[in-house]
Amino acid sequence: MVVNALRPARRPSAMLKSRTAVAGEHVANFEIIALGISMEPTIRHGDTLLVSPEIELAPGRIVVAIHGAVWIVKRLVEEFGVLVLRSDNVDEQVSLDDVEVQGVVVEIRRTV
Length: 112
Fold this sequence. Notes:
This protein is mainly beta.
C-alpha cells in the first residue's frame, strides 16, 4: 500500500490527546491518505492514517516508511528472528534495512 499527501495532523482524536497528556510527552503526529488495497481489510484505499514518529517499533504494529522514493504502509512482523514489513493481504515483504521508517499508525479514520 502506498500513501498520498503528507499533511500535518489538524485534530488528533480525543483518545490520542488523553494518552499523550497522561504520558506527559509531546508527539509530532501527522496524517496521510492510504492508496491501494495491500493492507485490506485493516486499512482501505482512501483511509486517513494518523501516524506517530515517536511510538516504539514492535511486531504487529502498522508502520509508515519510505521505500526508495515511495511512501508505504506495512505491518511489522518477526520472521526467523528478523523484523520485516509485510502486507496484510498480499505476499509483499520489505526488509527494514531497505526503508526509512517515518512512524507507527496510531489511528485509522474511514468515511462510510
